[in-house]
Amino acid sequence: MNQFMNIEDALNYMPVHVPPRSALFSLSPIGVGTPHQESILSLLVRTSRAHAVSPRHLVGEVLGAADPAISKITCTKFFSIDAGTVNGLGRYAELFVSAAERLTGHQNLSCLTLLPWQDLFPYNGQGLLARHPRWCPVCLYQQCLLGQATVFPLRWYIEVYRACSEHMCTLEDRCPYCGKTQPYIPRFPDVGICDNCRKPLAGTRPRTNIPRFQLWVNDAIGEMVLRQSEPDFAPSVDRFRDFVREQIQVIAAGNRAAFCRAIGFNDRGLNGLLIKGERPAATQFLAMCYSMQVMPTNIFAGESLSMNGKGLCLPPSKLKDRGACPRPSLQRRKELEDSLHARLNSEAGLSVKEIAADLGVSGSCLRYWFPDLCATLSKRHKVAAKVRSAIQQERQSRRVEDVVRIIHVEGRYPSQRQVDYVLRKEGMSLVQPPLMQAYLKALKEL
Ligand SMILES: [Zn+2]
Ligand SMILES: [Zn+2]
What we know:
The chain is mainly α. Helices cover 48% and strands 1% of the residues. It has helices spanning 7-13, 40-50, 55-66, 68-73, 76-80, 91-104, 137-145, 212-227, 237-252, 256-262, 271-274, 282-291, 296-299, 330-344, 352-359, 363-369, 371-409, 416-425, 433-444; strands at residues 163-164, 169-170.
């Protein structure tokens, strides 16, 4: 450097660091390090929106070109169902994280999946992820009101996270208009609208009672999602196994069978984990943590919890594990078949899931043993659901018109805000397009 150059000139000649360009927009994931942390599928859909292309195009053409292993797996079934595991802890999650990191220039996108838990849970992710995307309609409604992008947090995809603690309502997995479940990778770049009928999934719902156990599970999952982005947080099955052994010593004086009974397992219920080297399913893991009165994340926090010793408590209800479905006996199958035939002749139009719940079996069990009967029942249910939905829509539209007229008769102007205020108390909202149409129509007729 010229010794006569002043410091300002010297700064002007300093090389400027330009970060490397990325092939895709590098949108920041929402809520990292909080329980609301976004999922990688949600980030991919937002990225496709920023590029004004379909998420399926982005995955098939762009991520597929970046990694041939992705181009091999992209098909309709993958987009609809299998892509759910992209948020999980297996091979698909690794493939997508690696491709998305290369294309967006982001680092550590694995914390937008459950990959940080891959040393604890079974490799096949048994009981970990929900079958279909689920959402809290009120959270979506709030995002919409605040003008934010639609974001699906990672916890909504976790099977045992079944209700929103904030809005005290259960998560939904079917469009309120057409009753369809949603694909994991939609065709349209917005996860907040139905992929089938394009109507919003957002809405208001009355607050309900969520069991305390479910609220504990929600807190536990919130903590798990929050902590997993910390670089030194490394949950493992070895640590969990050591912790359980310590607890058996401290709480049950080494009597494993007594310990098992106290947490609602049979006497040998922990043999798989402690002797055979098996990994705990997410449901089993959370139920055990609840019984031992410990937050799951505290087990892996580094400090010793060996003297936890708070005692044990039974979970008030079972966290159902999808894997555990006993094979029905021949006689039971005959009974089930007769019941299904009887339902075919009934007018109720229940879904296979509802019928299964009535009969005390799982929907997949019925579909496995009686595929044709279930297909016919499903068709009937869809027709009945459509009719019910049309009737409800009609009823709600009439109500909107009534509200507009009542406010008008009272001598006030029926503004959107005024009408929405009344409707929200009844679980409706003008954010739903048919209700907005009814509102506009009623205004014209005043
Ligand atoms: Zn919510
Ligand atoms: Zn729909």
